[in-house]
Design brief:
- By secondary structure, the chain is α+β, with helices and mostly antiparallel strands.
- It has one domain (2-90).
- 15% of the residues lie in helices and 21% in strands.
- It is built from two helices and five strands, in the order E-E-E-H-H-E-E.
- The protein has helices at residues 31-35, 55-63, and strands spanning 2-3, 9-13, 17-22, 70-74, 89-90.
- Strands 1-2-3-4-5 form a five-stranded antiparallel beta sheet, covered by helices on one side.
- The chain is globular, with a radius of gyration of 13 Å.
Length: 96
C-alpha cells in the first residue's frame, strides 16, 4: 500500500491490478464489500487485497462503485493494445 496522488487517496498494489481508494469520496454504499468480500474487507488491514480474486472480478466490482472512491489500474498492460501501461477506471464512469 502507498499514498496516491490525491489527498486521502491510498493505492493497494496487486500483481495484476492496483486499486486506489479516496476516503473523502466514499459514501459507504458497500458495493465493494458486498460484491467481493474476499478483496474488500473493512475489518482487515489492509482492507483492500487486490490479489485475493481474479483481476477481472476486481475491475468489475470497482466499476460498480457509485461514488467513484475506488479506481483501478491494470499492471503490465501490453503496449501493443494501443492503451497506456495502466488503464484507470472509476465506478463513476458515464456519470456527469
Amino acid at each position: 500500500m502507498r499514498e496516491g496522488g490525491g489527498a486521502g487517496r491510498k493505492a493497494y498494489e496487486g500483481r495484476s491490478v492496483t486499486v486506489t481508494f479516496e476516503a473523502g469520496r466514499c459514501r459507504h454504499a458497500a458495493a465493494c464489500v458486498d460484491g467481493l468480500p474476499e478483496v474488500f474487507d473493512p475489518g482487515a488491514r489492509p482492507w483492500v487485497r487486490p490479489d485475493a480474486a481474479e483481476a477481472e472480478r476486481v475491475v468489475e466490482v470497482v466499476r460498480r462503485c457509485p461514488s467513484g472512491a475506488l479506481r483501478y489500474a491494470l499492471v503490465n498492460r501490453a503496449a501493443s493494445d494501443g492503451g497506456p501501461d495502466a488503464a484507470p477506471g472509476t465506478g463513476a464512469e458515464g456519470k456527469p
